[in-house]
Design a protein that fits this description.
Blueprint lengths: L1 H10 L18 H75 L8 H4 L2 E2 H8 L14 H17 L3 H7 L5 E8 L4 E2 L2 H4 L5 H14 L13 H14 L4 E3 L5 E4 L30 H7 L3 E2 L14 H11 L14 H13 L4 H12 L42 E10 L2 E10 L9 E7 L1
Helix pairs in contact: 8-9, 8-11, 11-12, 12-13
Length: 447
């Protein structure tokens, strides 16, 4: 009884209202609110933890990707350095071949080492193990046989190296690959800037460019094979040359260059191009056309002379056709004269790399018996105007003055791959010096 009485006194105030000790709720719903507050706090903390974990994971992945990209970049640079070593040995091999040719009294032509030895870590690893790279199987045809022969020659070369050192060198994570291409066998577009529009050499280069774009690889890239080839060659030359006039073959002019760019935001550069991609500023230039032009022309050398031993067959054919124009000692060739052009190309290539011998070989193939203009041994035939560029000059009557045996400007396209990271590096070098430490970078780009 006493305990009940005390309990009633404690829980009721003077007004008869029920009271509870401090900290207790007088409503049943307040228990639910407290639970919600706790759950909300837990959810907030969980979200913060998840966000922190996500950020940490993203940062980690970014760091790993950056690490892989950095490793891929240095693998690409390793491929470039490896390519430079091959270029160095190629120069030494050329020197030995030159000395041997003098003793034998005839030119010695051989495949460049940078075309024979693949700069590819995957292929090199396979070769070191004595296997055949995947996709290169015996019994193939055409290009596959040639590719297999090159790889076999490369394998023999690599077999002479210290296998243990080579395996140690190739024990890295990831892969590299590089393609080496000489620029000396291409037509120099920047020569349009260094030459005056009145010089025969200016017209000679433009004629070569016209006849180049009139051939099969350019079919479908230009609507009118003859007219558009002439127009595009003129646009390319005018884009780079110094003056601001549209220059015709033979030194004529027809209005300002700006008229060609009417309705566009572009304008002619009238300066040397730094990259081939700048040609996309020329009206009418397309990605496909530029991609094909890159195989035959360059902006990384200044000389207007071309090494025919390294030139594409299409460019060499264009040079031969341009050589026969505006001459009275040989019938001007058409670009579609397959038999005579094939014979002329073969005669020239047989004499590589002797410049004078190549010039004489072309004269013999064309039936030219004099060094200059004069009586033709084959007669003179006037070609329809629709098949030849209007106007122009043949320039020098000696083909050997058009060509060179130089092989010093190289473009190296390298790729490094680690995991999902891939880095491409384009490096153009001038390897004219016998000392690789003195080789100069002409162009460098990281993609």
């Amino acid at each position: 009884m006493v305990r009940r009485l005390i309990s009633k006194i404690f829980t009721r105030d003077a007004g008869g209202f029920e009271t509870r000790p401090y900290g207790t709720s007088n409503r049943k719903g307040e228990k639910g609110i407290a639970l919600l507050l706790v759950l909300s706090s837990l959810m907030l903390l969980s979200a913060l933890v998840i966000e922190f974990a996500y950020d940490a994971n993203v940062t980690y992945n970014i760091s790993m990707n950056e690490r892989d990209r950095l490793e891929a970049y240095y693998l690409a640079r390793s491929a470039i350095n490896f390519s430079k070593i091959i270029i160095k040995y190629n120069k030494e091999a050329q020197q030995m071949a030159s000395e041997a040719s003098k003793k034998l009294g005839k030119p010695i032509n051989f495949q460049p080492l940078y075309k024979m030895i693949p700069v590819n870590s995957g292929i090199l690893r396979t070769m070191m193990q004595g296997g055949t790279p995947e996709g290169v199987l015996p019994g193939g045809e055409g290009a596959e046989v040639e590719k297999a022969d090159k790889l076999e020659a490369a394998q023999k070369t690599i077999s002479t190296l210290d296998s243990k050192s080579a395996e140690s060198f190739l024990s890295f994570e990831g892969d590299f690959d590089a393609q080496v291409e000489s620029q000396d066998g291409k037509l120099s577009l920047n020569s349009f800037f260094t030459l005056s529009t009145g010089q025969p050499e200016y017209d000679r280069l433009k004629n070569i460019l016209i006849f180049l774009m009139m051939q099969k690889p350019f079919e479908g890239l230009l609507k009118d094979r003859i007219k558009d080839s002439q127009e595009m060659a003129t646009k390319i030359a005018d884009f780079i040359d110094k003056n601001d006039s549209v220059n015709e073959l033979g030194g004529g002019e027809r209005g300002p260059e700006g008229g060609v760019y009417t309705g566009t935001k572009q304008k002619p550069k009238n300066a040397k191009a730094l990259t081939m991609e700048e040609l996309m500023l020329i009206p009418g230039m397309t990605d496909d056309l530029l991609s094909e032009l890159k195989k035959h022309v360059t902006v990384y050398k200044n000389t207007d002379k071309i090494n025919p031993c390294l030139a594409s067959e299409e460019l060499l054919r264009a040079m031969i056709v341009a050589f026969t124009q505006k001459r009275d000692d040989v019938e001007p060739l058409r670009i579609d004269n397959e038999d005579r052009l094939k014979q002329a190309v073969e005669k020239i290539m047989e004499k590589c790399p002797d410049v004078q011998a190549m010039g004489q070989a072309l004269n013999e193939a064309l039936g030219i018996t004099t060094s200059g203009s004069g009586t033709s041994s084959t007669g003179t035939t006037t070609q329809p105007a629709t098949t030849q560029p209007a106007g122009g000059s043949a320039g020098s009557t000696n083909f050997s003055s058009w060509i060179t045996a130089d092989e010093k400007i190289f473009q190296i396209d390298s790729t490094g791959t680690v995991g999902n990271a891939e880095v491409k590096v384009v490096n153009v070098i001038n390897a004219g010096s016998s000392n690789p430490d003195q080789w100069k970078d002409i162009y460098w780009r990281v993609e």
